[in-house]
Amino acid sequence: MNLLRHKKGGIQIGHAALYKITVAAWLLLISASSLVYYFIMPEYGFSSALLEATAGWTATGIGAYDAASVPLGLQIFRSISNWIGGVGIIMLALTLLPSRQFMGWTLAATEFPGPDFLKSETDFRRHYRKIVAIYACLSLLQFILLLLAGMAPLEAFMSALSNTSTAGLNHINNGVVTSLSPQIKIILTFFAFICSVNSAVFIHILRRKWKDLKKSSELKIYILRIAATVILISGILILRGHDGNPVQTICSVLMQVISFFSTSGFIISDIAAWHDVCIIILMIMGFAGACSLSTGGGFKICRLVIAVKTMSYGLYRHVHPSSVRSLTFDKKPIKSETVVSANLFIALFMMTYLLGALLLSFDNMSLASALGYSQAMITNTGLSLASPGSAGLATGVSAYGKFVLSFIMIAGRLEVYPLLMLLFRNFWKSE
Amino acid sequence: MKRIAYFYGIFLNLMGACFSLPLITALIYMETSSIRAFSLVILFCLAAGSLLRRLCRSSIDSLRIKPRETYLLVATVWLIASAIGALPYMLTGALPNFFDAFFETASGFTTTGATVIDGVEALPRAVLIWRSLSQWLGGMGIIVLFVAFLPSFGIKARNIAAAETPGPTVTKLSSTFTGTAQRLYIAYIILTAAMLLLLMAGNVSFYDSLNHSFTTMATGGFSTYSNSIAHFGSNYVTWVITIFMFLAGTNFELFFVLFSGSIKKVMKNEEFRLYASIVFAATLLISISLMTQGGYTDAFQSLTDSAFQVMTILSTTGYATVDFNLWPTLCLMLIVILMIIGGSSSSTAGGIKVIRLLVLSKLLRREVSLKLHERSVNDIRVNRHKLLPETLSFIISFLTMYIFTILLGTLAVSIADPAGIITNFTAVLSCISNVGPGLDKVGPTCTFSFYSNFSKFILSFIMIAGRLELSTLFIIFTPYYWKPGRV
Q1: Given phi > 0 = left and psi -120 to 50 = alpha, else beta, which region is B469?
Q2: Which chain B positions have a beta carbon within 8 Å of A299's beta carbon?
Q3: Of A60, A101, A414, A112, the residue nearest A262 (C-alpha)
Q4: Which of its termini does chain A have fewer beta carbons within 10 Å around, N or C?
């Protein structure tokens, strides 16, 4: 938000400064709110407060406090920080678009309506407002629907805020929402899905550009990926004799898959009864996370699309070494540097994931938990599938471990580069 | 097609010749079942090979293999070699199941060293020497072997070698590629012989020394004992093997640079420096972790164990002197990371290779400069040589393919075998990087024997894919490979 104020003031700032402000703003927000948590609940220690604050701002579905023991005011604060953090990251992504953070300029331009979009300052601001308005409307709609479905007003308010930012539902039983009524579950899943698609989709819908919507390969792949995972998991469950009729099984799998892929990370189905394999499938398919320019995390579907195209083209180039065909996204050619940076980001994402697990392993937790937590944090899902018993609670993690978890969450949310830059000398020199 | 069939004919004959070493071993130790099995296999290879050559002789003068065909040739040669190499295991009754035998041979030729045999001591000695020999042959590349010793063959050696040699680039050591291949093999043979002598100096029998020299220099990791190098219980043997694993994971071209007398040039080589610093840092971290968390009290013992394990994993050999499954999590995580990195380019090691890691870090540095909109954005240079954009894009697509193959491989194996995520993930990782053992249920004291036939096949396939740097094998499964006219 600080960043926006700078922009509106019309102050010309360099790119290095923009990144410095980004990192500083996030660290400031997080440390200030961790103090709030710490002063209200000092018995848990500062590291827990930090984890809670970081999870709040990065919209990650993990917590350090048992939700039942947290005062109501603090819960509301967390939901609000979820919402601002979730929508704020889209604002940040839009602001940083020209500087190639989040996803390259060219790609966003293909997703967004009009080739000249983002070029004029006025358009830019109008879209900021539009997107905030869209997410506010979505939250309001969700709030009303949840009320109608019979949820208590305050709970519905918090759920609407948290779910819009795909932050999970930690205020309800630490994110285990299996006992809610089917209507509420459907509403929650639906909105988790809606909020994890590219916000350009809403703008297309508002402008009634259905053709453009159909072209969006990111949305298509996202839906296909969900469908494939659901078929795979429910197939395994049905073949191995899961209780309940097939339709019920498919529905419950669908809800859990959306909760995980949208990086919300609440437990909505009885995954404890699932076969181990299903959890592994969910973990492996979960790295990509949600779509770009959404409130979700992960390395983003548009990069997945580009990565698959790069691999296929790499093989093609071996057969036709002199080929100069360029890769396309949504049927528009993309620059080779965008292709490089998308693939590079996936590599960097995986490296950060391993580094996170390495840092966690200093704590001597089991290898599976270290890998599971690291994934849950870097994708901002918050639900560590390797130790699903703990649900959305970081139980049994030491103070050091909580610092590391917070670090990975921030790295995942800011898409690593702003933190990576801190290590480079020319970043500090460039003022 | 005839050209390729003719090539198969020669290849089969050569395989037949390679089987003579185990046959000699069988004769020395008078193992009747092995004598029969190996004689049968040799007869089969000679007969089938000669038949193919005779049938396809008409096209001998046009024995120019097109660049496109080299991929098919290399990929199928590796698959055929693994299938034929499996015959002795089946004929001697050591591994009656075809999938087991195929897995074991693929693991041999790709220098992985993952085994499905519980208790290798029970096997005939001839079979064991074949197991080690297959790794030695696969280490430098089966086809590079051809090029080195059959120069008159006339195929475009460079293309083939590029499809088989580890690393993104093949440097010229000599004016012809045959010359380069010969020199690489000479270095390989000299090092193997040196190691053989050093091991024998440490009171290891000739038979064991030969086996372990073969598998160490190939960074393979098959041992003639179930408890691997721990069997010898000697620090001397451990350190000799550690040093030779380090050498085997080094770029072989550097030996010639060293031979020409410029130690400075070796020290300045960026890949070697990164490789050495990874070894140093990982060894230090693991030995500290073992002293503080792992219950070690003797600093030298901790250093020995950690250096050996770091080298065996980084060079993708896969021996063991201790059961590192029991080590603290920090060590396990480091082992996973080392498995991914692997050795240097143009060595016998697997993994993504140190050079790609180097290029990746340089690319990230450039990406940061781009994000900061700096005016001067430099080319990517390694050892002062500018890398071409094509090379960079191949490196990038390799990295992405590597990540996705691991993820999808784990998925496939997990569906067939519910052995837990760590077991399945490290099994796939270990196979794609050609390491050998993984963690948990496929740890250094365990074997892959509990996997189903489906998983064994998938894992064998992943091993070969990893050895051929993914694209060489995957390419023959793409539609545009078979329809070259389609653009």
Answers
A1: left
A2: none
A3: A60
A4: C
Considering only residues 97 to 126 of chain B, which have any Cβ-Cβ distance to chain A shorter than 8 Å?
none
Provide the token pair at A237.
Answer: 């469950």
The minimum CA-CA distance between A276 and chain B, rounded to whole Å, is 7
User: What CA–CA distance (Å, rounded) separates A310 from B394?
Assistant: 9
Supply φ then ψ for residue A336, to 5 degrees.
-65, -30
Q: What is the pLDDT of residues B400-430, one digit of tens each?
A: 999 999 999 999 999 998 888 899 999 999 9
Closest CA to B459 of B479, B432, B480, B482: B432
Phi, psi of A176 (to 5 degrees): -100, 105
Regarding an ipTM greater than 0.85, the answer is yes
A-chain CB neighbours of B421 within 8 Å are 276, 279-280, 283, 368, 371, 386
Q: Name residues whose C-beta falls within 8 Å of residue A118's C-beta, 6 or more positions apart in sequence.
A: A94, A97, A98, A105, A108, A109, A112, A124, A127
CB A328 within 8 Å of CB A338: no
Tell me the two tokens of residue B76: 């199928």
Which among A12, A277, A355 is the top mutation candidate for probing chain B, defined by the most B β-carbons within 10 Å of its own β-carbon? A277
- Chain-chain contact of A319 with B333 (C-beta, under 8 angstroms): no
Counting one residue from chain A and one from chain B, the pairs whose CB atoms sit within 8 A come to: 169
Q: Label residues B288-325 b or e (16+ Cβ within 10 Å = b).
A: bbbbeebebeeeeebbbbbbbbbbbbbbbbbbbbbebb
DSSP code per residue over B9-61: HHHHHHHHHHTHHHHHHHHHHT-HHHHHHHHHHHHHHHHHHHHHHHHTGGGGG
pLDDT exceeds cutoff 70 at B485: no
Name residues 354-413 of chain B within 8 A of A (Cβ).
Answer: 360, 363-365, 367-374, 389-390, 392-394, 396-401, 403-404, 407-408, 410-411
pLDDT (tens digit, 9 = 90+) per residue, A41-93? 998 899 999 999 999 999 998 888 888 888 999 999 999 999 999 888 887 77
For residues B137 and B125, is the Cβ–Cβ distance under 8 A? Answer: no
Residue B363 in tokens: 């690319």
Tens of pLDDT, residue by residue over A153-207, are: 999 999 999 999 999 888 888 888 888 899 999 999 999 999 999 887 887 788 7
Q: Is the pLDDT of residue B61 over 50?
A: yes
Say which DSSP state A333 is in: E
- For residue B412, the distance in angstroms to the closest alpha carbon of chain A comes to 9
Cα dist. B345→B242, B267, B468 in Å? 19, 16, 13
